[in-house]
Amino acid sequence: MAARRDLFADPTTGKALKHLMSAGKVIKESPLPAATQELVSLRVSQINGCAVCLDMHTKEATAAGETPVRLHLVAAWREATVFTEAERAALELAEEGTRTADGAGGVADEVWARAAKHYDEGELNALVLLIALMNMANRINLITQQPGGDYVAGQFR
What gap in Å lies between CA 157 and CA 149, rounded to an integer? Predict the structure, then answer.
């Protein structure tokens, strides 16, 4: 499968994407735990069906030492025993923040409260931005049919 567009080849979209990648780097350097960031990125990408993001974040998580069991169980995190309560709260927030059309009213107060119980203000802010950024990246990649499978861990550092 070939991508519909190389958005980096166009000066305007290339510049915009570089800014988005810079925002992603700032989030990556935030106090939000790296493992949580990768798990959330995977879950959002699973929900949205973004192959290129699934490829990227699976490989980045693996390179960072994440276990195959946890990576395989992200899709069924509610029934899995391998995630901390904080990670579960982040995954729940990621799901509700991604499936906004499915839940009238957006993110439930209880979901927000569970996340706020485990993350301080800065971490919670980074989590919100990560969820939003991943949803945007997924949509860009889906619209332009970016293929997954060729990503190499550390490629965009």
Answer: 18
Q: Kindly report the three-state secondary structure assignment for every residue of 28-71.
A: HCCCCCHHHHHHHHHHHHHHHCCHHHHHHHHHHHHHCCCCHHHH
Structure tokens at 116: 């706020």
Cβ atoms within 10 A of the Cβ of 72, count?
12
CA angle 122, 128, 131 (to 5 degrees): 140
pLDDT 10s digits, 30-61: 999 999 999 999 999 999 999 999 999 999 99
Angle ∠(14,16,18) on CA atoms, nearest 5: 70
Radius of gyration for the chain, computed over Cα atoms and rounded to the nearest angstrom: 15
Q: How far apart are CA 64 and CA 8, in angstroms?
A: 27
* 83 DSSP 8-state letter: S
Query: Structure tokens of 108?
Result: 């439930």
Angle between helices 121-143 and 11-28 (to 10 degrees): 150
Distance of CA 107 to the CA centre of its chain: 17
Domains in the chain and their CATH numbers? 32-143 (1.20.1290.10)
Of 105, 142, 116, 152, the C-alpha closest to 3 is: 142
